[in-house]
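Hey, sorry to bother you again with one of my protein questions. I've been staring at a protein lately and its backbone has me curious. I owe you a coffee for this, so here goes:
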Amino acid sequence: MAGLFISFEGVDGVGKTTQVERLRQYLESRGRTVLVTREPGGTPLGATLRQLLLRNVAEDAADIAPRAEALIFAADRAQHVAETILPALERDEVVITDRYLDSSLAYQAGGRELTAREIRDLSLWATNDLLPVRTYLLDMDPAESHARLQHDEDRMESAGDDFQNRTRRAFLDLAKAEPERFRIIDAAQPIETVWTQIRVDIDDLFGYGEASR
């Protein structure tokens, strides 16, 4: 496996999609083949599971139980790695994913209050221990980030302020525990400032050097 795996994390509305696209364009301009994907929903199976997770089964159905929710996310991730991520890495491509394992740890173990060990063990089993080499955590107060949303809130986005704040704290705790992999970036800064910080780190990661800056 010769490719490079990068993930973007953070609560909803922090600008992950914008920065993922900036990074894709930049790496392609440097001659790399890039695959952009997301969780949940990075495969046909995942797209079906995404609808269950974000919209619930039916309007009059009981909400998805926390353990069932964790298992659905893990199933999506297992298929995502097997069908999309690993084949691309084996082709020496750069894979950039909008959310990965850390979202499960933050949302299920932080927001839903399951144990982090349960969620981590489940996700690592589902992915055969595959982790990104770099994770960009775009951090912002959830009250500010949700004000940026330009669509109706989905099931996760509408879970309430306490849920969102627990999730943010869980993301920050994850980053603190793995400083070699994570880079925390203040997403309240202007888009160009956020991108510059990502690009500088990417240049170091890929060994592009000062000539690219």
Observations:
- The radius of gyration is 17 Å.
- Residues 66-90 form the longest helix (25 residues).
- The beta strands are 4-9, 34-38, 94-98, 134-139, 182-186.
- The helical segments are 16-29, 44-55, 66-90, 101-111, 116-127, 142-146, 161-177, 191-206.
